[in-house]
Design brief:
Layout lengths: L1 E3 L12 H18 L6 E3 L11 H4 L11 H7 L6 E5 L2 E5 L3 E3 L6 E3 L3 H13 L6 E4 L16 E2 L3 E2 L9 H10 L3 E6 L6 E5 L2 E5 L18 E7 L5 E7 L9
Parallel strand pairs: 1-2, 4-7, 7-10, 10-12
Antiparallel strand pairs: 3-4, 5-6, 8-9, 11-12, 13-14
């Protein structure tokens, strides 16, 4: 099975409609060419998958039928940007990290409103013996954030609301009630880290594109996470660097 953590085309959040359409077509062609049709694929939405998030760059009015998260939904035939499913004795929850600011391109990373109510109900519905994997684009908890170039450091340390979930305390309290949540996966930072907190493992994997096709992102090379899930609720994880190298000066 393939789980994608979002940011699938190369940034339709700031590309006009013709280029965005080309990028979606290219992404889906790569999947069709390289992935066997029998392989299940499940996608999370990333901040760069939200068309018109930067209205000016996209030349968007906000009235387009595919505006915002709609384009992502239409590409995959999803009814919502959050959902769950079962496979091989495990339960998988895919969430939407983005509470969008209505006035501009920014967002706050958190689970709110209908999605939060749905998440609580979905967790309650699961038998406590069923192990759960949860996927978000933005990390719920991340150590890599403190080494990220966008983290502000002066007399205090500030992690931006666009770089880590601001509701991490609330989500952690929810997971304490549901100890069968075993693993939280994310991406977004293009940096690799693993945090063990309160009996739960949070893994932020790197990115296939590294530092947006310019080479490794700091110390994390281009790659992806490979995870084995076992019937007893345990798992193993390794980060696979697949050997792609940026062409300097191109």
């Amino acid at each position: 099975m393939i789980l994608t953590g979002g940011d699938l085309p190369m940034d339709i959040a700031s590309a006009e409609q013709p280029r965005s359409a080309m990028l979606w077509k290219l992404f889906k062609k790569v999947l069709a060419d390289e992935v066997p049709s029998s392989m299940p694929i499940h996608h999370a939405i990333g901040n760069h998958d939200i068309w018109g998030r930067d209205k000016d760059a996209c030349n968007a009015t906000g009235k387009e039928p595919f505006f915002g998260k709609r384009w992502f939904l239409d590409e995959f035939g999803y009814s919502r940007t959050y959902y769950s499913y079962d496979m091989a004795g495990w339960h998988f929850i895919v969430l939407d990290s983005f509470d969008l600011d209505q006035s501009g391109p920014e967002y706050t990373s958190r689970i709110v409103g209908e999605q939060l109510a749905w998440l609580k109900a979905d967790l309650r519905a699961m038998a406590p013996t069923t192990p759960i994997v949860l996927l978000t684009h933005v990390p719920i908890i991340s150590a890599a954030n403190f080494f990220d170039r966008k983290t502000e450091t002066d007399s205090d340390i500030t992690v931006l609301r666009t770089r880590m979930h601001v509701d991490y305390r609330e989500l952690d309290a929810l997971f304490v009630k549901h100890r069968n949540v075993k693993l939280c996966l994310s991406g977004h930072l293009h940096l690799l880290d693993r945090v063990e907190y309160n009996g739960l493992t949070h893994i932020c994997d790197g990115a296939v594109c590294g530092d947006k096709w310019k080479g490794p992102r700091q110390q994390t090379p281009e790659g992806y996470g490979l995870i084995d899930l076992y019937a007893d609720g345990s798992f193993s994880h390794q980060y696979v660097s697949y050997g792609w190298h940026a062409r300097r000066g191109v």
